[in-house]
Design goal:
Elements lengths: L11 H7 L2 H9 L9 H10 L2 H7 L4 H11 L3 H17 L20 E4 L7 H9 L6 E6 L4 H9 L2 E8 L2 E8 L3
Parallel strand pairs: 1-2
Antiparallel strand pairs: 2-4, 3-4
């Protein structure tokens, strides 16, 4: 059987059935996937759960999840090459991420929590945890040395509004949880 890349829309049931080695990788990635060991849940929930949904449930960045699953079936390098080619033009034109207009909440940023991650090598998890603690109507300002494009992409998929601006050598990224 020819292996093909696992995508965000594939269901957990389909990929684990097609590639049994994926199950072990999922169990290693997060304890939240222990339900794969329950035959009844595997036959029902796994049929409806896409890789994208599973990544969100496990609090895992989707691209990391896709890499891990594709790597488990021996296609990790192929996945990385696909990602590089599909994002090559994005890195050449970072202005496509630049918001054009300040959102109304940006000027009210004084009650926002502030998280300074300048100089930290891997602050992704620290930032996502802080953002998920926000209540509706609250925001978080992250001080960083560069625009964290993957983080922005990820948190937009989690329904947070994002705006950033650069002051001197610091990028100030605002994440805002919409009011209900």
């Amino acid at each position: 059987m020819e292996k093909k890349l696992i995508t965000p829309d594939d269901t957990i049931y389909d990929i684990v059935t097609r590639y049994p080695e994926v199950k072990q990788r999922l169990l290693e990635i997060s304890p939240r996937y222990q339900n794969l060991n329950n035959p009844a849940l595997f036959q029902t929930v796994a049929r409806l759960t896409t890789v994208k949904k599973a990544a969100a449930m496990g609090n895992i960045y989707l691209r990391e999840m896709l890499y891990q699953l594709n790597d488990a079936i021996g296609l990790g390098e192929e996945y990385l090459q696909q990602e590089k080619s599909s994002t090559a033009n994005l890195s050449m034109n970072p202005d496509i991420y630049r918001p054009t207009e300040k959102p109304p909440w940006w000027d009210q940023k004084t009650p926002f929590h502030i998280l300074d991650v300048r100089g930290k090598s891997h602050p992704f998890e620290e930032i996502t945890i802080a953002v998920k603690r926000l209540q509706p109507g609250e925001g978080l300002l992250v001080l960083q040395e560069f625009v964290p494009y993957p983080l922005i992409d990820y948190l937009k998929t989690q329904q947070y509004e994002v705006f950033y601006e650069t002051k001197d050598s610091t990028v100030i990224v605002g994440f805002y949880k919409k009011e209900a």
